[in-house]
Amino acid sequence: MIFNKETAEKTAEFLLQINAIKLNPRNPFTWASGWKSPIYCDNRLILSFPAVRNYVRDEFSKNIEKQFGKPDVIAGVATGAIGIGILVAESMGLPFVYVRPEAKKHGRQNQVEGFLQKGQNVVVVEDLISTGNSSLLAVEALREAGANVKGMAAIFTYGFNVAEENFKSANIDLFTLSNYQNLLNLAVAKRYITEEEEQTLREWNVSPSTWNIEI
């Protein structure tokens, strides 16, 4: 769920302004999974815009402490959330670690990089939630390292039902700065898209794997 509606609307507006989120129902993107999608999200662009990255940093810092209490460590999910995770940890005066998709094949073969003690309370920072599978692999790695994962905070979620089910099964609370619903509401209000295109975007969100691109 979102931290609050005001933050969700402001974050969505920023993401559209800097083209971190692109909406193109008539010429859809192709995801790595092979899905056709009328939306593409690249939140790494946030780091290139000081006013936006500072806003995201501050909203994360404030709302993480409000929702989860102040943790011992902030963890970022590699690679998209490393940059913003460091900013959040710095703002909160906390240590930072990051989690690789899998353990390295050489050296110390770490999956969790940085200093983490067993029993420490950790909040995970993520840039984007789709199905949640890769994000929850990071949670699993932190738990295996002995961390007490208090929850996850992400910039944006597509709001798929499968993600909600996955987080529920993993017993992890997920809060986001913004989400798909607030994005579409704002995109229509600010005329980034037409009402017809909004309907197409809503249809895709219900069943992205079988979406019909005709509008």
Automatic annotation (TrEMBL):
NCBIfam families: pyrE. Orotate binds at residue 130. Keywords: Glycosyltransferase, Magnesium, Pyrimidine biosynthesis, Transferase. Its cofactor is Mg(2+). 5-phospho-alpha-D-ribose 1-diphosphate binds at residues 100, 104, 106, 126-134. Its EC number is 2.4.2.10. The keyword GTP-binding does not apply. Belongs to the purine/pyrimidine phosphoribosyltransferase family. PyrE subfamily. Homodimer. One of its GO terms (molecular function) is orotate phosphoribosyltransferase activity. Residues 59-156 form the Phosphoribosyltransferase domain. InterPro entries: OPRT (IPR023031), Or_phspho_trans_dom (IPR004467), PRTase-like (IPR029057), PRTase_dom (IPR000836). The keyword Transferase applies. This is Orotate phosphoribosyltransferase. It holds the Pfam family Pribosyltran. The gene is pyrE. It catalyses: orotidine 5'-phosphate + diphosphate = orotate + 5-phospho-alpha-D-ribose 1-diphosphate. Catalyzes the transfer of a ribosyl phosphate group from 5-phosphoribose 1-diphosphate to orotate, leading to the formation of orotidine monophosphate (OMP). GO terms for biological process: 'de novo' UMP biosynthetic process; pyrimidine nucleobase biosynthetic process. Pathway: Pyrimidine metabolism; UMP biosynthesis via de novo pathway; UMP from orotate: step 1/2. It is an enzyme of class 2 (transferase).
